[in-house]
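Note to self: the last two entries modelled the partners one at a time, which told us nothing about the interface. This time every component goes in together.
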Amino acid sequence: MKIGLFIPCFMNELYPDASMDTLTILENLGLDVVYPMEQTCCGQAQANTGCSHEASVLAKRFLKIFKDYDYVVAPSGSCVAMVRENYAQWLEGEEGFEHLKKNTYEITEFLHDIIKPENLKFSFSFPHKVSIHNSCHAHRELHMASMSEKNEPEFSKIKTILNLIEGIELLEPSRKDECCGFGGTFAVSEEAVSTAMGIDKVNDHINTGAKFITGVDMSCLMHMQGLIDRQKLPIKTLHIVQILAGGK
Amino acid sequence: MGHPELAEKFIANDERMHWHDKALWFVRAKRDNASKSVDEWEKLRKVASQIKAHTLDKLDYYLEEFEKNATAKGLHVHWAKDAKEHNEIVLRLLLNNGAKKLVKSKSMLTEECHLNPYLEEHGIEVVDTDLGERIVQLRKEPPSHIVLPAIHLKKEDVGTTFEEFLGTKKGNSDPTYLTRAARAHLREKFLGADAAMTGVNFGIAETGGVVVCTNEGNADLGASLPKLHIASMGIEKIIPRLKDLAVFTRLLARSATGQPITSYTSHFHAPIIDGQMHIIIVDNGRSAIIGSKDFKSSLQCIRCGACINTCPIYRRSGGYSYGYTIPGPIGSTLGASKDLRANKTLPFACSLCASCSNVCPVQINLHQQLYKHRQSVVAQKLLGFQKHTILKIATWVMKYPLLMDISGKLARAIVPKLPRSIVYSKVNLWGKKRELPPFPKNSFKELYKQRKGK
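The predicted structure of the combined assembly is written out below.
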């Protein structure tokens, strides 16, 4: 099984440790993981701003770089959703696209669906209260957990995986899947709404009594951490890989 | 002003913004409970969506069938290609019947057509009889929500409004007291009316009748007292058969307010004795939307408002921030379809969280429509030169990994050394209320290379 490691552009530049944790988790499973050096960005910011031409350029590049791996794994629900849910408009019919679309996974989802929980063992404990952040694209596009709006059975791939760790206590905010307001370029183009949503979401996480907020999208966490740092609030964000890699 | 600026104004009053958010979240929570009380909820949504899609595909057929059956029942059917024709038909009907006083139950279509000011200019007294609509009408405001027109107002605001217009006691904002005052006031208006208008929730092609759903019974009272009843209906309100109606009535009120059904679900299939009933079928830009692959399904909307209640942006920016007759996700897609230039900020008044698409009882892919409208904004060069240029440059850099690496390295080396006043200057919108993450020394790629080199 050959895995192409896809690290979102901003994580590569700003979150090298969490990116490295992603690699570590996969390598600890004995998987053959390669980080293709020519990768840059999936084009999500362009696509979500309506810049279809620019997004298509990056989508085509992405396909070329990643099409020959058995799986593509990334520590980001929204970048994976970009590939699986939005690339078709530019890549439908292109050689290798169906394979790429089917085999691109967010890492928690990959652990849950492909490796399977019964084959996972974490040799450390994480004796902390952790509030789950269900980021929208992982949640509603990748369907990584049951959605509050739908009449469907309860499940959460994130909780299933985290519950394998000894001592961890998982909590959820009262509005368990309300958007935090990051939204890509929305964070600046609608700055007032974005930050209002963010503060409300952070406070909802704080009210669970948790010490940490965790989720599968560093972008949402970066937005919330930015608000937490400015207001010096008593909670800290951790990407899920930072817990899964050993919970320092 | 676009949505971001109007939203910022609404948010500036933090206490009221949070009150507004909580009031609407309460409605969303009631909707969740109601939808979960129906085991086949998701199936119902699917069937409703299929019925609506089918009807839109054969709309010419069903509209003509509706006209034929309605006419056979003694109803008069009129066709209006736009708002102007609609308003002229209403005025002509009123004048022909010597009607000067009109009572009107809720109809977003008449809002869309700006009927009230048109009629008032022509000497007609128009009284909105839905309580919420009457409140905003007295205040000379448009509705801020399609189901809860006065949701932006607190009971104290209603108290002062009624004090001014209905002569209620100063400082009394007791809801029962105010409702009774409104009731007495509206009774007078109903009894004195020469004509009534209603909207239409569903027009049934098979029977030629229309169905109007209200909680206050105001449509029924209006349609039963004066001898002239005019119902305005968008072309998309048609459903094929009477038995299809049950699918929609099960979804509508649960989605809108969490009630199992609206208090009144009234079927109008004939004029009252010695009376006349007219139905005006209005296009006003809808046909053009039917012709667009990406946005056609927006016409499946049954105006429940669930997407508006769940929208985390709407709850925090208020209905007026959209500057369009219908706010929230459904208004943003309809508004963008109608006039993209005037409504160019609306597709971006959305974080693409997709909650709206999940609550929609007829499965409109609302967030995907807003995503698609953004592409039209760019294609029509309405994005703004600066934003587009930044993304063009970023894309160019991202085509060349080396260039990207150098840019990243420079940023990581320079930004931490800059004084805070420069990093957090006015142009940094991110930094207005948020800190930037600390810039690390190395990128992941650099660490990965170093590790491989060992």
